[in-house]
Amino acid sequence: MSPTIKELHISAADWTEIEDIVSALKPAKIATKALQEEDLMTGDFYRTWLKCKVDTERIGSRFSKLLVSYMNEREEKLFENEIILSAIYLDPRFKVVLNETQIESAKNYIIQVWEVLHFLENSEPNLLDLSSITGDNCHQVLKMIGDSTSLQNSYIEEPRQKRDCDVIKYWMNKENVSPNLFKIAKNIISMPVTEVSVERAFSAMKYILNSQSSKLAEKLLEDILLIKLVSV
């Protein structure tokens, strides 16, 4: 910029700082693009998050270190969410990152999910008091699921899967061995972690619902939108 106009002049030091900021934000840009994909599972989100954090930390600038510190704070908050914990726990690629307390929290949530599934699949609910679930009686409740051995032994002791492991296929292969645990995993790991699908649904709707089709019935609109979304 022109050195004769003070307000427009950018010094060499300023340019260096700008370059540092741009460089530090590059991993975040790559991660943001990766998170635009559809059907992302929690494990996929966490993999992208970890890569972004590692790549940002590797840059080593003052700004990149500041970003990493904020990411660590955010990660602590994410790991306070029992839904996130249970999804990561049931992802064979990343279960090893959880500590004992986080694993216990994940197990308790898994039990609650099973209770809901049990209620939906049976005419009468299982009258288990969820508030009474603690680490002391967690094993007994897991037995009710019918997969206690699989959950606490086979699954936990299995080696960590590679990052390119297909988690859906992994659990589909477990369906006959641990059918109830498979049902739970299918529901938890399919939890959407971004709003990409919702945003795309809104975008698709504006092409379906316009001035020429404003009188379409709600059910017909839903059917058209469903067909459009699954055919993409």
Automatic annotation (TrEMBL):
Q: Highest taxon of the source?
A: Eukaryota
Q: What Pfam families does the annotation carry? A: Dimer_Tnp_hAT (PF05699)
Any one GO MF annotation of this record: protein dimerization activity
Where along the sequence do coiled-coil regions lie? none
Q: Which InterPro entries match?
A: HATC_C_dom (IPR008906), RNaseH-like_sf (IPR012337)
Location of the HAT C-terminal dimerisation domain: 153-228
The record's annotation in PANTHER family points to: BED FINGER-RELATED
Protein name, per record: HAT C-terminal dimerisation domain-containing protein
